[in-house]
Amino acid sequence: MTVTIAPAAPQDVAQLRQLYFDVYGHGYPVPLGSDPAEMRRLIDDPHTHWLTARHEGAGRLAGSVAVQTDPGGRIGKLVGLAVHPEQRGGGLAARLTASVCADAFATGTLDSVYATVRVVTPGPQQVFARNGFQALGLMPNAVEVAGCESLALFARYADGVLARRENVGAVPRALVPLLDAAWQSTGVDYGRPRRTDAPAPAVDRPAPVTAPMELITAPGFVRRRFLELLPDPGERFFPLHVPNTVLTPPDGAFEAYADLDRAAASCSLIAVHPSPAAVAGALEPLMAAVTRAGADYVETLLPLADTAGLDAFLAAGFIPSAVYPAMRRIGDRFHDYVLLSRTSRQIDFRAAAVSGRLQPYLLAYLTAWTSTYLPLPEVSP
Predict the structure, then answer these.
(1) Terminus of the chain with fewer CB atoms < 10 Å: N or C?
(2) pTM above the 0.85 mark?
(3) Per residue in 291-300, pLDDT tens?
(4) Which CDD domains does this chain map to (predicted)?
């Protein structure tokens, strides 16, 4: 039968929920496929491109996909790609991906679209690779779906974006394996940035925090406070994430804003006031508070050029997991960002179907994890 791809409509919500249930069961942690109110809001949202696929004459949907966009950040995220189990194998996932990306880029308001891709099977990775997406990294234990799963980061760019990247002169030594992996996988040239090893001088480092971290989950208050303290969009660049939680030590030396998702057992640290480096010495109690709140995976996003911020998170056991070239536009130039992650669960890659494009990132992650958690004196004969 002929498949028709068309924009999602409010009357599709019930069938969309059934589709995501048929694909994921009760384990789908994203409101886009489970919360009727949020689904209707996104369908009506002018910054969301949501497409459905339906066989002519059939009573149910065959597939769905959406791209949510952040116009201010000129970036989009492809989410909710799902094809009914009875319709797989016919290329419908690739058609949906191509169609929704064409719609999103046609607006002229996006520089890139990214997706976090499951690696339990190779199929999703192939779909994105065939649609012009590049593999950017691997995030172990990133989400709770049907058990704890790892995700891969992929991105596709508008024409000419990668040619206008700003070079970075120096990076922490721990990032070199990740940059080498990115060059092998994508061909994006990071040049030869100088490797830095020296941490910030002791006089510049805040004293270690041992007191339990205070965690406030009041979404409205958190958002208002976030915008008051960080009115400059450049200080809170984490596209398509809105904080719902703030963490602070008892003395209020800093405030860390996070998007805490208990259903997915994950947490994104969006911004720190007064600066990312302010959490140096406090990340252990911060991690303990987030873990108690139900998140086994924590990630943060920092500019590749922010050596002080990167050093603070690297020193606290965060692993360089992905590099997003040309993620942020400033003027006519584009700046690279690094995703760092930390997980409190045991990492097990035995069930992962890691494609050739992701293999360099897997090796880079293992190298970084080993050097962080198994220092050479402990593993030498």
Answers:
(1) C
(2) yes
(3) 999 999 999 9
(4) NAT_SF
